[in-house]
């Protein structure tokens, strides 16, 4: 039995269940958010599985018909009408105080759950329900740019997706020129790091003997990848992207390769943004490559630095910046030239200040959670990699100049250290980096001591 069989089975159940739904309770020609909310209430109240599947399918079909305004109203309804039931929570708390048992604790936990989580679970029963919910969250993320108060709805999506897309459910597949056209089209569409221009460009990335592509799939999203990884087999660790993507390059005999380079890792489903698929995804790809090419000894990335230019602009605008010396700040003013990347003298003068700034960015730049400010760094360090080398100029394409002033990074996956590095990052947020990077970084400025205060006791969960 495969996912196609179960999909057809759900479709059959849904078709039969449609006859069981009392369609007179809601105007069938109305798709606005209020009638959709009534259908959601029905879905939470019925118990027959066939009716559940059919009604879930109906709700998702009507949701797809909503325009932006009614869609926002529907998300507001999910926030206000399908949150936790406060009356039931109070009763569960009273029961817990009366008898602090496993049974009352479990009941309290269940009553604290927002009703929309159960609604999402039931919507997931519909044929292609998981894919529809992923699209729904994508729409929600678009709305939240202007409506941040909808964050609790997003939190419930992320909570459920974290379980549904657990790494244990993901399947790794090798993508080659014989892969179905529907999957290959998605590889072109979803490539987020280095644009794939056409079918010839795609073939140059997956068909030569020194190129590989792997994708992670989920059983509920058949032939729709979650993440894909493009790999180049090389003789040495690369310092620039142009030679890897060169259209007229001569392919390398894989038997002569010593290094596997992960030069593009793309997350394909925006509706799953922020949902971790677990750590060690790259280790799984490494294991797959090493089985095919046991002579390989080095596994590295050639990664973009998507937050570097924004950070550097902020530091340059900060008079007392701890990240830049006054001398470096003066030289970095050359980045304001419209054509700095075509001026060899400018490139030569900028190199050392850029490298020092980049090392400082990676070693000391932190977000409000204390994590590295660079999202790609968070991914690779969380997967157990080591920040091995900074490369500049490595990508002078318009995108590379815009996001990082041409900076790229090598992360090293040392099979003997992956677990140790991962644990260090998970426990202390430590940035494991080569000494060549650490020694040129400027020290982080010590934070001013916070005034003493009494912290309130943490609430019981």
| Uncertain spans | 19-31, 446-461
Element pattern in H and E: HHHHHHHHHEHHEEHEHEEHHHHEHEHH
Q: What would you say the CATH architecture of the largest domain is?
A: Up-down Bundle
In total, the number of strands is: 8
The assigned structural class equals alpha+beta
Spatially, the strands of the biggest sheet line up as 1-2-3-4-5
Write the layout of secondary structure elements.
Blueprint: H1 3-18, H2 33-45, H3 49-64, H4 68-81, H5 86-98, H6 102-112, H7 115-123, H8 129-144, H9 151-164, E1 171-175, H10 181-190, H11 199-206, E2 211-217, E3 227-234, H12 242-245, E4 259-267, H13 281-292, E5 298-301, E6 303-304, H14 308-317, H15 326-332, H16 344-364, H17 375-382, E7 386-391, H18 398-404, E8 408-412, H19 418-428, H20 435-438
Parallel strand pairs: 4-5
Antiparallel strand pairs: 1-2, 2-3, 3-4, 6-8, 7-8
Walk me through this protein's architecture:
With about 450 residues, the protein is α+β, with helices and mostly antiparallel strands. The protein folds into 3 domains: about 5-165, Malonyl-CoA decarboxylase, oligemerization domain (Butyryl-CoA Dehydrogenase, subunit A, domain 3, Up-down Bundle); about 165-300, Aminopeptidase (3-Layer(aba) Sandwich), CATH 3.40.630.180; about 305-440, Malonyl-CoA decarboxylase, catalytic domain (Aminopeptidase, 3-Layer(aba) Sandwich), CATH 3.40.630.150. Helices cover about 50% and strands about 10% of the residues. The chain has helices spanning about 5-20, 35-45, 50-65, 70-80, 85-100, 100-110, 115-125, 130-145, 150-165, 180-190, 200-205, 240-245, 280-290, 310-315, 325-330, 345-365, 375-380, 400-405, 420-430, 435-440; strands at about 170-175, 210-215, 225-235, 260-265, 300, 305, 385-390, 410. The strands form 2 sheets. A 5-stranded mixed beta sheet has the order 1-2-3-4-5, with helices on both faces. Strands 6-8-7 form a 3-stranded antiparallel beta sheet. Helix 1 crosses helix 3 (about 50-65). The longest helix is centred in the C-terminal third of the chain and has 21 residues, at about 345-365. The protein is globular. Mean pLDDT is about 85; it is low at about 20-30 and about 445-460.
